[in-house]
Amino acid sequence: MSKTSNATTFSKETGKIAFVAAEFDAAHDALQDLQSRYSNVTPEEADVIVALGGDGFVLQTLRRFVDSKKPVFGLNRGSVGFLMNDYNPEGLNLRLSKAQAVTLYPLQMIAKTADGETHESLAINEVSLLRETYQAAKLEIIIDGVSRMEELICDGAMVATPAGSTAYNLSAHGPIIPLSAEILALTPISAFRPRRWRGALLPHDADVVFRIHDTAKRPVSATADDFEVRNVVEVTIREDRARSFQLLFDPETNLEERILKEQFAP
Questions:
Q1: Long-range pairs for 199-206 at CB < 8 Å and ≥24 separation?
Q2: What pLDDT is stored for residue 4 in this prediction?
Q3: Whether residues 100 and 42 fall in one domain
Q4: Which residues neighbour 238 within 8 Å (Cβ) at sequence distance 6 or greater?
Q5: CATH number at residue 30
Q6: Which residue, 11, 21, 58, 85, shows the most beta carbons closer than 10 Å to its own?
Q7: Averaged pLDDT, 146-172
Q8: Are strands 232-239 and 208-213 parallel, antiparallel or unpaired?
Q9: Domain range holding 172?
Q10: In angstroms, rounded to a whole number, what is the distance separating the alpha carbons of residues 257 and 172?
Q11: pTM
């Protein structure tokens, strides 16, 4: 789930900006340009963090500063840039003062591995499970303690947030979810059996557990956005309301509008 507020509290006269950049030339060139144009401070001192890169980098930046609750304004120097704003070095302070804030609640992934270890991570877009070898995965799906599907034979499956519904979820033929909807998408990836199953829409507070069958022969990995755990035997996914991320957008290209437009894309 997420919510949108009309504007930030950033002041174009007194607001403090920190710039961070991805590790590629276009992002570093933009970093040097913006630092030469605008007063900037460390992320710890800043009122807002400007992330220069692509969608992957803005997700990393949000997770990096989740406990500080600092809003992040992404400027696209990558390829897709669905979670980013258009790059323009002019008038940045004014843009930040007018930006709309979207509060995103992440998914928590708790993944248990075959060797008995437990790994936790947060996902803003999705938690996905994928087969590691040529053999299909066999997954059991448990929702709120009830086994809803005893065996799904597939390449994998995912649980996606509304913000992530237009990313990997969409490419796997999952539904696009309005940003304000209190639901999650449960989407199979190349399901073999049952053949006609196309996934499910779940309440945002559902507890989803994947149990992996025949793990020695059919190993599966679990990924929370870009954090991967190999050889998992059980993965629990739930929305984490104790934490939140604030992502900033120019009003004319806010995230709600982008997700709506995706539903009418040719």
A1: 199/174, 199/175, 200/148, 201/175, 201/177, 202/143, 202/159, 204/1, 204/105, 204/239, 205/238, 205/239, 206/143, 206/144, 206/238
A2: 57
A3: yes
A4: 107, 108, 205, 206, 207, 208
A5: 3.40.50.10330
A6: 58
A7: 95
A8: antiparallel
A9: 107-239
A10: 22
A11: 0.84
Say if CB 23 and CB 57 are below 8 A apart. no
- Residue 54's pLDDT band, with cuts at 50, 70 and 90, is very high
Render pLDDT for 76-86 as a digit per residue (tens, 0 to 9): 998 878 899 99
β-sheet bridge partners, residue 48 = 17
C-alpha–C-alpha distance, residues 84 and 97, integer Å: 16
One-letter identity of residue 213: H
Cβ(247)–Cβ(71) under 8 Å? yes
94-to-12, 47, 90, 91, 250 alpha-carbon distances in Å: 6, 14, 9, 6, 10
Q: Are residues 100 and 122 in the same domain?
A: no
Task: Report the chain's terminal Cα–Cα distance, integer Å.
Answer: 27
The CATH number of residue 176's host domain is 2.60.200.30
Six-digit token string for 160 = 């996606």
| Dihedral angle, C-alpha 146, 152, 156, 162, nearest 10 ° | -50
Active-site residue, from 55, 144, 205, 214: 55
Query: What is the per-residue pLDDT across 195-251, written as a single tens digit (0 to 9) for each?
Result: 889 999 999 999 999 999 999 999 999 999 989 999 999 999 999 999 999 999 999
Q: Is 55 a catalytic residue?
A: yes
9 contacts: CB under 8 Å, gap ≥ 6: none
Say if residue 167 is in the same domain as residue 195: yes
Residues 6+ apart with CB under 8 A from 242: none
Residue 1 pLDDT > 60: no
